[in-house]
């Protein structure tokens, strides 16, 4: 099967965020995919998967007939260490990594079948709020399993550090522009700086995950659910929980104290530190949100978590 069309979301985001370097990557993509199929003895087995922002992902067959997925990534600081995490997970709660090409950042990985996203899965006999709790429980159980000591094999990328993210936020909030102050508020900026200091000395370090949400968990045959597309950091357990809590607080049907407790207990993390990471993510989100309508919705969700 010939090279498939690059999904519109990938083309748009790579060009928008990376300009001429993104165009160069897109122009080289057909040749890159062809070279990788030769290198790993693959044949393309269907159209590229839709969606995404930085990756061309296509189903393939290995020379033994096994189904797999070829993922060619526009490598940036957020996704650079994905193969390191997948190698460390070794298929325990996440898709298996079969091959990794350091020159391109491309990965050959397990094809999770049927691959239905947890986010959109309905559970028989569960009403919407009950189903949401079930999804949260599944997700927290997986991310708790995936947190493990940081071990970087030779030839694999080092993990970025969550404490470096705190340094970036601290610099952003200390020297906030007038527009950022308007969007966030001086009191919230002050409290955000206090949280950065409080989280700067983590009680533990392992492979955490920045992109913890229900769309990155899919159904499979080998295990009921597997994590895909991790964005790993060297981080404490509460880091995963903070990012997951932020997403659920902003978009899910549950909120406040009950949600905070479920996430913290599900991940085996300190609830105060989970809350602090989530509130820092909210602060960053407010600083980047341009429209008043979307910012008002985020402020309402943040206030509910602040009161938890």
Automatic annotation (TrEMBL):
> Could you tell me the keywords of this UniProt record?
Kinase, Transferase
Does the record carry Transferase as a key word?
yes
Q: Which GO terms describe its molecular function?
A: kinase activity; phosphotransferase activity, alcohol group as acceptor
A single BP term in Gene Ontology = secondary metabolic process
Q: Where does the source fall among the domains of life?
A: Bacteria
> Do the record's keywords include Transferase?
yes
- Protein known as: Streptomycin 6-kinase
Q: Which organism is it from?
A: Glycomyces harbinensis
